[in-house]
Amino acid sequence: MSGKRNIQIIYKEIPQGFPEASKTFEIRKGTIVLENVVLKSDEVLVRTLYASVDPYMLSQMRDPAIKFYFGALIPGDVMEGGTIYEVIKSNNPNFVTGDVVVGYSKWEEYSVISVNFSDERQFKIPNAKNSPVPLSYFLGVLGMPGLTAYVGLHKICEPLTPGQTLFVSSASGAVGQVVGQYAKTLGLRVVGSAGDDEKVEYLIKELGFDAAFNYKKHEDFNTILKQTCPDGIDIYFENVGGKMLDAVIQNCNPFARIPMCGMISQYNRLSDQEPIYNLVAAIGKRLRLEGFIVLDESARYGADFTTTFTKLMKEGKIKYKETITNGIECLPDALVGLFEGKNFGKGLVKIADL
Fold first, then answer.
1. Residues 6 or more apart whose Cβ sits within 8 Å of residue 321
2. pTM greater than 0.70
3. What is the maximal distance between C-alpha atoms in the chain?
4. Fewest CB atoms within 10 A around its CB: which of 87, 140, 227, 322?
């Protein structure tokens, strides 16, 4: 019996600042004999099809002594994250050979994992081989990023009143592009920020944002927010943190809502975070700032989200931009590229065909 190639991406060391592909990661080549794999109860042998690269991963690459809402990665371990995988062999009553699953697994071509449906990160893609949409969408607009947009707006921002102004940072990213388009279908005025002029043009011309700006061209965020949000901000979908959040608070209207989805500017400085100087304004303006973890809300919002977004995509009211690179060896560069602003839309690596 011949072995199958099984390349793994190893997390080598805690980065100082942002990760570097060759320094932070190791591409380890190996083999696996599929016929020899013995599965314990509830385990499945899977073949990885897609792996997702996401901003939260930076906060996992920290000193384990720093407490955060999920565990730190341990140097020497195989990297892990959101994936789409095909079940090759199963000793789990919920899965059969051929099932295609959106889940959370290691960055390797073949994995043995234990799966249960109490883990909200795992769900089967029905009729995956004949899916009417690209499988990659289930790690994006029809997966965690899309659900994040839906949960943040409905859980924290209601009433979603037509004519109010929504500002979203990192607006061309996996979550931000969905937030803006969905808000437009609800009648809100939408403004976004992104990191280069091409992305800004895309937001306005392709996605229908009412205004957008390149934050790298504006040192004074307060001034550009006054220009693009002349009637103030009623909803700020927070993806960035730091100076942007500070400026947004200055420009918020009374009773504005701020769903706090992520803070990519702070993930590599969890032990030395930027201060927020204008937070006292939240009292007088009666602002609502609320952090949320999308997995907490999957059971409550998941079905309505799927129905709503499937319909909107069929109607052409939501588009979705992806940056997909091919080959598991590309994963370190793809993740580093995310933090360098090289990705446009949702970042993914395709590892194998279904």
1. 172, 177, 202, 344, 345, 346
2. yes
3. 71
4. 227
